[in-house]
Fold LuxR family transcriptional regulator.
Amino acid sequence: MPVRVLLVDDEPLVRAGLRAVLEAQPDIEVVGEAADGAAVIPLVRQVRPDVVAMDVRMPLLDGIEATRALLRTVADPPKILVVTTFENDEYVYEALRAGADGFLLKRARPAEIVHAVRLIAEGESLLFPASVRRLAARYGDGGGDRAARAESTRARLTEREGEVLRLMARGLSNAEIAARLVVGTETVKSHVSAVLAKLGARDRTQAVITAYESGFVAPG
């Protein structure tokens, strides 16, 4: 089955460019478009995309609030790929904190756009881990006693789960983590599921954000 994508951006040329790039791929289908985040929820319910590629800055409802609303109101929500002009943007980090699964620069090359959509849809690796780390270092002060929060995160995880979370933060896929730890891929999937459950994270991006903000993993 192709990856079903919904495009949300207030610039028609951006939507047209993304559509042209994505629809050139046999395994990706653009199933709808919207010009503002306010239209996301009804469209998601109508076309049931696997991935929503959404601008972070829009005039009525921006990508941050649209992400929050989508995750709050839609059962089994799609993956959310934030599309942005600027990489080191606090809006991008806030979107990730709100529940977005990754971000893509509008100036990205066609191959990078396709890779981002596929990777987000698969959900087994972190998109642009170095960029997420830089954003966390710049904007990710969760407040309070970082040492205490790091210890709290550590206490919730087994030693192996903590090791898996650190490797997730470095951007390793399940297969790469399995090779590094010399275990089976299914074992890694079980560890990842346990980490997400214990941290209350929707996916690995959210788990990594939690790891950075708690101080369990240093973002610098």
